[in-house]
Amino acid sequence: MKKKPTSQSAFLNLRVLLGFVLALAGVFLALLGFSGFSNVSAQANATPEAQQFGETTVIRALRSDLSRPLHDQPLVWPPAEAEHEANLNPKIPHQHEDGPDPVIQSTLWQRTIGVPSIPSPLLTWNGIPYPGVGCNCAPPDPDGEVGKTQYVQMVNEGIQVFDKLTGTSLLGPVAITSIWSGFGGACQTGGNGDPIVEYDQLADRWIISQFATPSGSTVPRDECIAISQTGDATGAWYRYDFHLTGNFLDYPKLGVWPDGYYMSANIFNTAGTAFLGPQAFVFDRVKMLTGDPTATSQTTGITGGSSEAPFLPGDLDGIIPPALGDPNHYVSFPQGSPLIYKIRAYHVDFTNPANSTFTLEASVGAASFTSLCSTTRNCVPQAGTTSKLDAIGDRLMFRNAYRRFADGHESLLNNYTVSANAVAGIRWFELQRTQPGNWGIFQQSTYQPDTTWRWMGSIAADNQGNIALGFSASSSSINPQIRYAGRLATDPLNTLSGEQHLFDGTGSQSATSNRWGDYSDITVDPVDDCTFYYTNEYYPTTSSFNWRTSVGYFRFAQCTAPQKGTAHFIVTACSGGAPISNAPVSIDGSPYGATLSDGTYDAVSTPGSHSYFVSKTGVGSQSGNFSITNGQTTNVPVCLGASPTPTSTPTATAAATATATATATATATPTATVTPTATEAPSPTPTATATFTPTATATATTTATATATATPTPTPPQIALAAQGRLIHGQRAADLSWSGATSNRVDVYRDGVLIITTRNDGFYTDRIGGTGTGTFTYQVCNQGTQTCSNQATVTF
């Protein structure tokens, strides 16, 4: 939500209204020009939006579709707005009882004097700068994730894709609205920010979200979630709009888990003046990975009411998933007297929603502390200005990092900001569990080594348990800086062993309602499971609304990649061998991912024996076993559907003569040679000549001759093509969409003539040109082959 300071609200109302009208006009024109881009139409559900099953509310997606590839989407540039506060983000009511902090790390402990064990940055680069494409707002809410080859960053209200090793921009920055172009509804016209990007390591997919204000509302009530169709964030996205509440949905944060995408939110009344309580949600990950429009969200409602502390869901790191059937673990901000961390288990059942539960599984003691700036946002000092910054000390920071280690123990890491020796310090803590058993505190400490204020933290661990904590740092004598601290798994418990600077700002923020953050993000490279990536904000000069963001990465030299290998699934139809896309794949009983358009899916797993289950509704299912060798790729061929019935006679029309000569009884199997005839363009119905050797019994010096007649039945096209015509600036164009192609690039033919060889991303727009009537026929083929689609026709 674009919340203006009270003194500006009246002045800006007219400007906002005018901007809204212009935005609607732009959206209308975009819909006229680009409505054909989605190959699954965005549609509102005809069924009731929400249904009750016991204590669980099931919420259907208002809209869902598949976007065009982001690199082909129209770049949406929202009208320039007045500088304003990005989101209201009301404070959580202060209910904490202050107490002495017994776990302050007041001196910078180092393993070797003068040589911190925390490594320096390997690379830093500039992230998305103010104004965040079109937001003109503060704070930027910077967050980012690292995948196999890309790093994706989001801010209010922009997104950018980088090469993860070089920091080179691959796409953007563009407005988040670009992803929702042509989708309609609140996600296209009412996106408000609080953006989150996650990388689903099990599936090799990206997840992005932001909240949105539906028409007629004044506050965010919807959550817009998009799942990348492949591991390429510049490609196409499955898009969903969920209307989650009639209240004010604030501070939504996602966590990846095998059976769902879990989310927490702080719920307020529509005026933002009353906290109603925290609320947990879960979205059907398995269906959303395949773009299934029947995907739903579930919630058990607001938890505990206004006296309940906010919480965050567990977010999976690493290649080892939770134990089969393990629920997601939500951790609450410490509350009560004495202080405890409440850990709640969200068990979801998408088949029988009445069986879903959200229950308290553990209460773990927390060391006491003193709240920081509990009644004001005017808190953290900066050099060169009297303006101070909001420390947001009333909640846990993003993310609640979950990891399961090779020895079987599990870890939950998080942090929040407290007052320590009259400055801001970061309380970080690690919960651990070993089965059988329950969660308990493993280590906790308040990091406050000197008189600098530290806040806005984010924490994670690599595969060996080494920990890195990123944060903002400032004081009356320094401008806000981006720093990080860390520890080796072998260091003494409850200590961080050093600190480094990722980027030092050269300015301070003034006159922006004190807002900073509202969060930052540290994540771990899924390939080596050692390299930490961190993003946060800074200012280049002292000013208002002029933030910048930086991204950087580093790793502990002591870290080595875990043992792992890749299972390369090749899923085809048992009859005909066509690739089967969007087939969910489970490994050892846990949902992992889904096949791509070429029927393949790569699952990274630990060495040893594993089981799999692959299925697709209306096609079939198959289960089996495979083995993983460290550093190796294992092919796992799977066919779905009924197996073909062998026949001794080919179904082709041809005259053939076969001769068998043997010294003993011999059996020969028919063989066929098919020769397609093609001219300038491929033909989906090839002419074929078949020859074969029939079963024959012969003795020495005996020659058997047989003649057979057969009629060939061509294999149906494996590539499905659809085409739709439209006008771009009055000129003719055809939007092509296809599935089933198996090559990296495809040949596109118009009226029998090859017009382009392009990426096999399922979409291409042929700008034909001209304004007259006409009919155009298209085919798409695997590059350099005769494996082609059906013919699709566009008429103007």
Tell me what the structure shows.
This protein has 796 residues and is mainly beta. Helices cover 5% and strands 44% of the residues. The protein has three helices and 53 strands. The strands form 14 sheets. The chain has a six-stranded antiparallel sheet with strand order 1-2-19-18-17-16. A hairpin with a 4-residue loop joins strand 12 and strand 13. It starts with 5 loop residues before the first helix and ends with a strand. The relative contact order is 0.10. The model is unreliable at 1-41, 43-47, 109-114 and 644-716 (pLDDT under 50).
Please write out the topology.
Layout: H1 6-34, E1 50-53, E2 56-60, E3 63-66, E4 84-85, E5 104-105, E6 123-126, E7 137-138, E8 143-146, E9 150-155, E10 158-163, E11 169-175, H2 185-189, E12 191-200, E13 205-212, E14 222-228, E15 237-243, E16 248-257, E17 260-268, E18 275-283, H3 285-288, E19 296-302, E20 311-312, E21 314-317, E22 328-332, E23 340-347, E24 357-365, E25 380-382, E26 385-389, E27 400-404, E28 410-420, E29 423-433, E30 440-447, E31 453-461, E32 467-475, E33 478-487, E34 498-504, E35 521-524, E36 532-538, E37 548-554, E38 565-573, E39 584-587, E40 590-594, E41 600-605, E42 608-616, E43 620-628, E44 633-640, E45 655-662, E46 702-709, E47 720-728, E48 731-739, E49 745-750, E50 753-759, E51 763-766, E52 775-782, E53 792-795
Parallel strand pairs: 4-7, 5-30, 21-27, 38-44
Antiparallel strand pairs: 1-2, 2-19, 3-15, 6-37, 8-9, 9-10, 10-11, 12-13, 13-14, 14-15, 16-17, 17-18, 18-19, 20-22, 22-23, 23-24, 25-26, 27-28, 28-29, 29-30, 31-32, 32-33, 33-34, 35-36, 36-37, 38-41, 39-40, 39-42, 42-43, 45-46, 47-48, 48-51, 49-50, 49-52, 52-53
